[in-house]
Amino acid sequence: GVRLNLRRGADGRRNIDDLLAHAADGGEPRARRPVVIESIELADAELLVSDAPAGVEGRFVVQQLRLGPVEAGRPWPLKLQAHAELEQPPLRGSLALEAGLELLPVPGAPPIARLVKATLQLHGQGYGFEDLDVQLQADAMRLEYGTAAGVADSHVELDGVHAPHAGRQHALEQRPQEQ
């Protein structure tokens, strides 16, 4: 499988900055050719992350990612199975997602991702939750981040949601007091 190791030190420098700078230079001038991607498949991919400024340390594993094949005028079929094991912030969880993916262009910004007929399953613990089990179904999920230049805000819009869930939130647990 594929293994990537991304690090960002307290000074903000990343271990891939030199690669990104080279890619941004564009190298030698070449004639641009359109790129057509019909499908993407990835199995057993691991991303090790150490991001001091963001306080993130751990790994993400993609067991399976399948996107496509593309059919004109239809969303891309998307299937993802993954899990996260973070030391900081403490998080252990798995995710399964099936949906149709549409990318909506936004001038001067990253595209908006729209997932149609989405089924999402989350299991795990972290961010104050224990034994979390969420199964979300939505007619559509709109995922948007940093839509304007220099804006880091993100938001999610859900339409037609059904979300049965179970789990415990540490902050809400009350224990009997001894007398």
Q: What is the SS-derived class?
A: mainly beta
Query: How confident is the prediction overall: mean pLDDT?
Result: 83
What is the element string, with H for helices and E for strands? EHEEEEEEEE
**Contiguous runs where pLDDT drops below 50 for at least 5 residues:** 172-179
Strand content: over 45%
Give the N-to-C terminal Cα separation: 57 Å
Give the biggest beta sheet: 9 strands, mixed
Essential attributes:
179 residues; 1 helix; 9-stranded mixed sheet; 9 strands; 60% strand; disordered C terminus; mainly beta
If you had to describe this structure to a student in words, what would you say it looks like?
The chain is mainly beta and 179 residues long. Helices cover 5% and strands 60% of the residues. It contains 1 helix and 9 strands, in the order βαββββββββ. It has one helix at 17-25; strands at residues 3-8, 40-51, 56-67, 76-88, 91-106, 109-126, 129-145, 154-162, 165-169. Strands 1, 2, 3, 4, 5, 6, 7, 8 and 9 form a 9-stranded mixed sheet that branches. 4% of the residues are buried. The model is unreliable at 172-179 (pLDDT under 50).
